[in-house]
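Hi X.,

You mentioned you wanted examples for the new student's onboarding notes, showing what a folding record looks like when two proteins sit in one file. Here is a clean example. The first protein comes first, with its sequence line followed by its structure tokens.
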Amino acid sequence: MVNRRYFIFGTTLVGLNFFTQAVSNAQQAVKKTQSGETLHNISSYRYQKWENHFKSITDGAILSDTKSKCLHFWNGKENIYKIYPTSVPLTPELTRTGYTKVIRKVVGPDWRPTESMRKRDPQLPKYMPAGPDNPLGTHALYLSWPNFRIHGTSDTRKIGRQSSSGCIGLYNEHIEELFNYVKIGTPVRLI
């Protein structure tokens, strides 16, 4: 027959041992270098109010927050509010901020790297047709700023990172959803 005290004490020790092992096996939420730099994707989400950026959202509005690496979409008429994780420009020099608007929508965009992109990476092709390897992904929203787009991606590892040459990248399923909500003329702000 098992002694009740021994049973309770033994069960408690097994539980503590399991808990201690689980804690020691847990992954760090954010891995950092010795200097404190983050080693992988992370978003520092910040809540945004549309009123701080737009006069109206009746016909939709897009805010891309390059610091938190997320895109906000509002449509007041249809009572829609969506938030999507994004990739953002590599450096402050490549980052354009301010107001623009959607001037064109393309399913299956082709891609022509800019001269400065090809200077940084001579391996880039001069032209890439639509397809699974196209860096613009499945859909693209062209902005009134030349060479700036909100688009999908062929490399999902880029989402949540500073990885673009100026554009805002989304997962293909997210850009497809956003594409269906957005109209030509939708105001866009990048901060």
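Then the second protein repeats the pattern, sequence line and then tokens:
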Amino acid sequence: MKRFEYKARDAKTGKFVKGAIQAETERAAGKLLIEQGFTPEKIIEEDDGGIFARFQNKIKGKDKNVFTRQFATLIGAGLPLSNSLRVISEQTENKAMRKLIEALLADVEAGRTLTEACQKYPDVFNNLYIALLRAGEASGTLDLSLVRLADQNEKDEQMMSDIRGALTYPAIILLVILAVLIFMVVVVVPQVEDLYNDLGKELPWATAFLVGVSKFIMEQWYVVLVITAVAIWFLVQFAKTDVGQRWLAIFKLNVPLFKGLFLRLYNVRFAKTCQNLLSTGVSIQDSLRISGESVGNIMVFEQIEIVMNKVKQGKPLSESMKERSYILPLIPQMASIGEQSGKIDEMLGKAAKVYENELDEQIRTISKLIEPILMVVMALLVGFIVIAVLMPIYAIVSDVQS
């Protein structure tokens, strides 16, 4: 949809008003204004500012979470749907998000449900969001559904932020190591080679190896850049394929030090999503399917598909989840208690809380472990280069003394 700025006369008051509206064409925008009781005087398509402006105003998870939380507050306060959207639109600073809200407002005022309006933007509103909206509208508890969505999205964002934070320090250390290595190989090692050439002596094997690396980097730097760029492009494209996604999923679930962290993250997402869906009246089959899709790992999703098929055949949820390699034991145990008490959603939420706490603790543990590991790696690499540089110098000093 396009965004149009307009100037129109209000049919009730006779006053001129200015604003913006979302529509496919200028003609469609004029029709919408007339339906809303305005007489259009001027309708102009808004300039999007080019590719850089679109990139800067991309809708982020934080923008969606703020929208969801504000929306829940206004709906819970008794404000009508269209009025709530209009108020949020006026307060939203991100242009892309504001355009989206205005598009939702136009659809709602045209007679569509909020769920139908949001379904047109799958890149922003995923299956979980749509399912909870549909359940909330059907049961008259839209504000509660929006609160659940905001809570889950904010918690998920916080978990990912903690994981990124744990990986930031190692990334910085690796960059420092790389910079030190490049400096030593490109600047220091060639000077040692020149010294040995002047004396007519043969370089030690370690120094000769570094000299070869140094010459290759300095003489074939463009080849290194091209190979690096091609490799990165290939990996990015490969990760988008089904095979690439499967390999990446397997890697995350088996990489040393991090596999337990990722497994708990996926189980928290699964249990929490399933809890929210079941609590709003979504069927167990749909809850499992949407929860599996929200996990973000194809290997875990395939395990949940097996659970879905077993439940479809009439087996209890707890029994269907047992002995699944990527579903942690506490989830089927709590589901079994929930089946007996009639509170499966509540029990799944408690399981998710336990694994959330374990995940937080594991993130802190990994942060503490990575530092000494990187220090050892850095010491070994820099130590090898220092030895390669000092060995020939000591050899020269020994020859002079003798």
